[in-house]
Task: structure prediction
Amino acid sequence: MFVFVDSRQISITLSTPITMKERLSLIILFLSFSIVVQAQTNDDWEEIYGQVEDFEEEESTSWEEMYEQLSDLKAHPINLNTATRSDLERLPFLTAQQMEDISEYLYHYAPIQTWGELAMIESLSERSRQLLHQFTYLGEMGKRGFPTWGSITKWGKHDLTTTAKIPYYNRKGDKNGYLGYPYRHGLKYRFRYGNNIQAGFVASQDAGEPFFANKNKWGYDYYSLYAVIRNWGKLKTLAVGKYRLRYGMGLVLNNDFMMGKVTGMASGSRISNTIKAHSSRSSANYMQGVAATFQLNKHWEFSTFVSYRPIDTTTDSTNTAIRTLLTSGYHRTESELEHKNNSKMFLGGTNINFSKMGLRAGLTAAYYSFDKPLQPNIAQLYRLYDAQGQSFYNIGINYGYINRRWNIGGETAMSKNKAWATINCVSFRATDRITLTLLQRFYSYRYQALFARSFSDGGKTKNESGIYLGAEWQPIRHLLINAYADFSHSPWLKYQRSSSSFASDYFLSATYTYKQSAFYLRYRLHSREKDNEKKTMLIPHREHRTRLSWKFNMSQSYLKTQVDMVHSSYKKTSKGWMITENGGYHLNKVQLHAAISYFHTDDFQSSIYNYERGTLHNFSFPSYNGHGIRYMVLAHAQLLKNFQVVVKCGTTNYFDRNKIGSSYQEINRSSMTETDIQLTWKF
Result:
């Protein structure tokens, strides 16, 4: 464990007032960390997830949804021997070619007897096989068809989870401004029967939101009810309640998660037609109503969906027009509560999809309207071509072809104002060790699709054209190299860009695993043009980010050292670095994880992002800037056969400030400590 602090810094830390609860938390942390030795737990998917996604802090807006789905799959894995194509589509790390190859292998050789048998599927890399092991199991083939309702009620599995975050500090808003208690808490109930039935509810409360008070007279600020049935005769999927959709490559409709550029080589040419339950805390990114997919015959599928739901918006002074659509989900103050559910939205549409002998084609149409017209502030010129009006529609066609070497996919769509968007991707498996990817996209600055989400540099499916080149190379068995270069152009104005602008993005990573050790190195250079100080011309905003890590595994424990560095230049130069030591121990029914990080950055511009383990289904990806140290310990215990307890305690201590945050979030001290507690009962 490496911690670099000088005597002056230590004295500052000790002079900061610390409560008895915080002292107890720190004692528990250091005692836990002291017993950590080198090891590996069964949660490697979180390690891979952190490596893949944490460089995408600006592009990816859906980490939490993705993490939620993977956590759910980890707790309820798919029987690989009975998996359908739609089941495999729930695994976001699989390419279209890998899904085809797995389905073909199952058709000829099912059931798969051992995990080593997956090496016979040439398109599956070692990493993909490892991830499959995390989220699937090799069960019996069983009987085909939908189970009886008697079997469902008898053998279905229930679990009830409650989570709470307890802060050991007061924010400015807790004393004057926020209407509720400073605790974040929630409930989650789920029922499952294999891959056929999923149902449940979610109730959640953010810190500061009123509980059984004000507009939340029914208790929690947010509720989600859902039920999903799969593979019931011709009914492939039926969702009732709150759900998420993704069709084609997302140019018409995709409110599911979207993987970023690092995983673009896996998901770039993937065409999806999926309906999923909305089982996360997100109170913005969902549909509410009914959605269904029918298997008309061997080659044709038909989907339809309808949704009607309240949404958060800001409106004009007369409350007759919508200015902005709000997605934060916070309702802590009087003004935030005024925006809660103050508008209504309707959405309906359909999709038809054809597949045969590697060929895929589909058509998606969506119509949506609001109870009052959208009137964005077009005085801000970068918003001049934002959607305006009360009703909208989008129509798109998707197409693709897959064989042993080639994976081709694309989608072209049109909005109500006759503007176009298209994305096309070609992936070529040159050898068993080399895969090349080329992706092109053109999104008109006039294209309007409020529920589109697809591959982009700027995070929106409009006002961008670009080319992405990617490569995955495994020169030797234990070494995997990934690289990409992405170039994009925005012809119209964007936020902080008062004229057309260019962006470039370069990435290189190498992962070397040998016996019990894993070494990881990556570098990224991201450059975007932005306004200068006087807004008279564009200047480059360049970010260099580097990570180096080493992990050593044994049967019951692990130790990982990680170094992050950043160099940013825009109007001024800003630099930063962070060193993190992670450790874990797994013995019988108890797991312990601990981490300590020391960070030193010049300012916010050189912030460093780092994935941190959290309680189940709760995503933690904090950013650090300034000068300080972060401690964290997490314990997971199976106290009884069906009862689990997870406790996480973390402290962030700053050496360069006496206050943390701003506005209502301001904390009048230099350190902040929080404890997360989660209880799960399975029955």
